[in-house]
Amino acid sequence: MTTPIVTRNRSSIISSPYFSTSTKLTTVTTTIKDKNDETPKKIIKREQIKIEYEEKEEELEEKGDKKRQRNKKEKKIKNDIKKEEEEEKEEEEEEKVIEDIKIKTHINGISLAKIHWKEVWDKIKIMRSENLAPVDTLGAESFNQDNIEPIEKRFHILVGCLLSSQTKDAITHAAVVRLKEYGLTVDKMLTIDTNELETLLYPVGFYKRKAIYLKKIAEILKNKYNGDIPPTFKEIEQLPGIGPKMTNLIVQIAWGRVEGIAVDVHMHRISNRLGWVKTKTPEETMKDLESWLPKENWATVNHLLVGFGQTICSPVNPKCSNCLVNNLCPVGIIEMNSSKKKIKKKIKK
Q1: Could you name the Gene Ontology cellular component terms for this entry (predicted)?
Q2: Matching fold, domains 112-129+263-293+303-337 and 132-259
Q3: Does 1.10.486.10 match the CATH number of domain 112-129+263-293+303-337?
Q4: What are the pLDDT digits (tens) for 74-85?
Q5: What is the pLDDT of residues 274-310, one digit of tens each?
Q6: What fold is seen in the domain 132-259?
Q7: What gap in Å lies between CA 162 and CA 237, rounded to an integer?
Q8: Residue 24 catalytic?
Q9: N or C: which end of the chain has fewer CB within 10 A?
């Protein structure tokens, strides 16, 4: 029995990607036998064509995905380059603005804050009176008590100054209180066990080293000064662990004499920030300040600036917007102008 003849539509043949142009342009009539009559060879051939067709489609799809991914990557790179160029341009503009401002913060190389130092001084005094600082209640002056013998009081002041180096006022004060409870006298410090003394001092900065210094100082005071502290600047400075800054404070508070300016790291930082000095160490700052600051201001400058640094002019993120001298301080002027520019940018956005 003969199977019916099936004629395929010409357009369906032409649209297939697996036929040549000449085939597509020719009307093809195919006689297909019943599937039951197909030979295994023809079945395999048909399946191969099907697989090839699917693979071709997958290949085309994969190429399309790769192209889209490549285009996306190229677009991201272009956007990143553009963003980087814009940021560089903004930084250059910011630097130019800062340089222009810097020129206005100095006259003949001298900062406005130094030229108008008295105005700066008076305004800092106002800010200090409005903001209580740790140094006001826990600083070296807090060891100057009137209810004890002068010789013992002077020893307390010396010990407090020794412990204050590289240590916050609150921690120093707490350590001195513990020592007083134990018995803060030269004789007690001579007999106390070093490990026990370290426990009383902890967590003062370098407490182990300071425990050694304190026992050596007690021995020197007992043998050379009848249990009292030395009377002169030079002799005090020669004691173990006592530097120039501490010596100035001890002489001023314990003996009531002003022989120099006590400069610690806080005073050093603020003096340079104001442009009062341009130095690298506290010792250099001390000499520079003493060269131009009137002597009647020497006794109070440490307390004034240290408290200012604790409340307003902090090492990181100083409160320039709340500072009364931000129109004279070089850092304040730059910070305030930069802040205005940032606000303008935000408004534009």
Answers
A1: mitochondrion; nucleus
A2: no
A3: no
A4: 788 888 888 888
A5: 999 999 999 999 999 999 999 999 999 999 999 999 9
A6: Endonuclease III; domain 1 (1.10.340)
A7: 11
A8: no
A9: N
